[in-house]
Fold this protein.
Amino acid sequence: MATDRDTVLEAAVGVLSRRPGAHLDEIARAAHISRATLHRLFPGRDALIREVGLLGLRRFATALDTAAIEQDDAQTALRRLVDAAVPDAMLCAFLAGENQLYENDEINDLWEVQIERLHALFLRGQREGAFRVELSAAWLSEAFFDLVAGIGWAIQDGRLAPRDAAFSLAELFLGGALRRPDAPVPVPTTRTAPLTHSTSDRKPETDTP
């Protein structure tokens, strides 16, 4: 019977997200395949990590598309994104934690496209008056993605029931991101550039909700 690559990658992320140094034998056992089969699918550790990263980015892109984040008001679109992203939260956790991925130009390019869509969603929400303007759209994007990753880790560790994940994410994030009616509106200042995986690579630019 043919081995499904995505199933193997999902098993791999369950191991690597918590134990980045796990041996390939451990990953093969988690995927219920032999080490030889794993090696036929992915010729080495670097190739496996790259493929897990690409799978995570594809799934997050699918979540953005499924949620149709460019449609309707931003808060409604964000709630749809929560529902679409949570099932693959563990892959987001891997993307958030595996710095090796971002030495790859293809992964960097895919990341930039997707994070720019998320950034545009929050910037639109600020212009609509839904999200706080004293928090930059770039920071809201990073905070949201990191919370999705945190949901993945919490589910894996048994600290959060999967059925509660979407509600917990939406309520926690929106509790801090939604604009309060009595909040003062600050003068726009500089913000960090559209997200890269490493904060050290960011350059300041103007954010104008």
About this structure: The first helix runs from residue 5 to 16. The longest strand covers residues 190-192. Confidence is low (pLDDT under 50) at residues 188-206.
